[in-house]
Every structure is written in structure tokens, then in C-alpha cells.
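Predict fold of TLC domain-containing protein; 418 aa.
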Amino acid sequence: MSNRVIHYATKPRRGLLQICVDWHLTTALSIITLIVALNISFPELSDASNQTLSTYQTRLPTIQYKNPIPKFIYLSYYNPKSGEYLKGNDDIYFVGFWVLIWLSLREISIRFWKPIGSRLGGIKDRNKLQRFAEQGWNLIYYIVFWCIGVKILSRFPYPILSLNIRQYWHDYPHDSIPALTKFYYLAQAAFWIQQLIVLNLEKPRKDHYQMLAHHIVTILLVCGSYAVNFTGIGTAIHVTMDVSDIILFVAKMLNYVGGGVACDSVFAVFVASWIYTRHYVFAKIIWAIYYHLPQDITFEFNLSEGRLATYNLWVVFLALLVLLEVLLFFWLVLILRIMWNVVIGNGADDEREDSDSECEEEPIESKTINEKGIGSPEKGTLYSDDDPTLLSSSKKMYQQISTSQNSSPNSSSLYQRK
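Predicted 3D structure, encoded as C-alpha cells:
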């Protein structure tokens, strides 16, 4: 028997980025638990609030907390006279707390959806299973917040489908808003910040930079419209966008589980909803902001009256909205290409999937090898549930073994792909 040197795959050293991905749920839950525990253990912190008069942050008397802990959990700047809330710097605490909540809920939801996709949906590829679970989380979030957005818009005089855009800035400024509106806006801001964090932690897609630009523009629009008291039109834009997203998530989940005709049918509905909401309704919103908004309000910076919309800010917001529409047209091209594949019978495959998934699929099952080519947990791992990056190193290992052991009857079975 000839001497053979076998190089086993070893688990590569994890960088700081991978550690953050693996431990963000534990870290987020630990901070959330600590803040809640402190608030419960020391109730006097929540009681330590005082009513302040008009300040540079609020033009009306509001209830403000002296200690920072309650600011993470409760909405700040409550106006006892009107029963509504104003806005100020303390809202940053609430947004930061909800970023941690969204990171935690996302990870928990993904762990909930993965068994469903694997057992009930029959998904065997690791990347597809991860994407299926992500779409499940997005579906839950968007449905809940779309319903909240519709509830908020129902207090305006005209129904949503009337497309009366000008009503959303009638009686500007909207600096005093109900609790539900304030929660909706701050939670949305936290969600998009969380999306930006996740986007830079996970494997990049083909449209990574377009998504990065989209998230940054969205965060600027959400935070900016909140700060300058345009929450009405901001909520209308969110509700408009969410309709097609919800349908898209359903179509993609059906695609991952092999939905066939059902997937193609839902995708056709998605295309119609995308064109209507994002290239007709959203275009009408942009036009109304461009043409009607300067006619309906006076551009001035008057902090005492809550009028913060200046001409320069109007130009910036209009430019961001147009940039967002340009990004939407970019995705429309991809959508129409996918739709064409459906028409010619190739199915609704997402062209925005991971660039690395084009090369190899990663099966969920683990495989190990020993010197005889038979699975052995004591030896090097060919596939690993803990670190999918071992796949490339496993290929190199197989090539080294094959070169040094051409006469071995088991060498062809060392690397099998299901």
C-alpha cells in the first residue's frame, strides 16, 4: 500500500463579521432583557417624569422622562391636553430599542419558517431554505404594518383609493400625532435601519448596491418626513409600496416550494400590482408633491409653529423620491424579464438571487469522510451545517485526494452532490 497524504477540511477562522451574524440574536435579546428588567426592577425610573413647557424640541407642553431607561420602552413627548404626541431627540432611544427588537424577531421568525420550508415545502438546498424563511418573516411584518398604515390613513376625510393626495398635508404641520402614528413611524424607521444592518451582514445579492441605495433613501425619507411633520404623506407612500411587496413574498415562497402554476399566477398578480402602485400611484404622489405642495403650504422655517418645510428641503425630498422611482424602474426591468420567462414556460425564477448560488447548491444534509471515503465524524467535514464556506475548501480537498489516490475504488465517492 502506497503512502497517502490526505488533507482534511478544517473549519476556517471566523472573522468579526461572521461572529456578529452568529451572535446578533443573543446580543439583541440580552440588551432587550436588560432594559426591560431595569425598568421593572426600578419603577421609580418610569415615574420620574416632568411636564416641560415649549422648548426647542416641542412647541407645546409635553411629558418627558428624566431617566433614559423608560425612553427605550415608552413613546416620548406626550401632550396630556390633546392626548397626542410630539417629536424630539428622545425618540432616538425608542428607535434604537426597536432595531434590536426587529433583529431578534427576524431571527426567531427565520428559525420558525425553516422547518416549514424543509419538512412541508420539501426544500433541500440551504440557500433556498434561508431565502424562504426570510420571505416568511417579511410577509408577516409587511402584512401587520400595512394594516396599521391603512388604519392610520382611515382617519383622513377621503378614502385611500380616491387618490386624493393633497389631503395628506392638509392643515400642515402635523407635529402633534396619535400614539399609533408615532409608533408606526418610529418602528418603520427602526425596521429599515435593521434592514440596512442585515444587508451588510449577509451574502450580497446581484443588486446589492441598488438595495443599499434603496435602504438609505428610504431611511432618509422616513426620518426626514417625520422630522418636518409630513407623516401623513409618508404613511401613504408606505402603504402604497407595501401592497406589491406582500404579493411578491407570497410568490417567492411558492416558487421555493415548487408552486408551479400557483406561483406563476401569483407572480402575474404581483407584476400588475407593482406597475399600478409603484409606477402609477407613486408617480401621482411625486407629481402632487412637485406641483400641488408648493401651492398648498408656505415654505418657511418657524420652529415655534412646527413649520419646518423649507424650499431647499422640498427640493431634497423631491430628488429622493425621484431617485427611488428610478430604482423601482430598474427592478421593473428585472421583473419583466422574469415575467417573460413565465410566458415561455421557464418559471418565475428570481434573477436577484445570491450570486454564489449560481455556482453550487448546498444540500442541508452533512457529509463527512475518512481515509476510506466513508462518513466518519472524527475526520474532516465535507459539508458543515455550522459554516457553509467549507464547501469550497472541500472541493480542493477532494482534488488533492483524487490526485494522490487515482487507484482507490472509493475516490469517486468522496464528493457527492445531491
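The CA atoms of residues 163 and 281 lie 8 Å apart.
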